[in-house]
Amino acid sequence: MLIGFGFAVTGGISWIVYLNIMTFGSDAAGYLLFMSRRIEGYFLIGGMVFIILAIILPHNRGR
Fold this sequence. Notes:
- This protein is mainly alpha-helical.
- Helices cover 70% and strands 0% of the residues.
- It is built from three helices and no strands.
- It has helices at 2-17, 28-37, 39-56.
- It holds the Pfam family YuzI.
């Protein structure tokens, strides 16, 4: 779950930082297209999937 949290934080910060591209005349579609080409954009999605899987599929320790 901590790996997922780290990925989600890294991806979320990247999404926010790259929002500065919008100030240079890019539109929302251009921003989403740019983020779809960057690996950091997928960290947020992957991290959220890891967190959800860690919650849904509990790990039985000691059994």
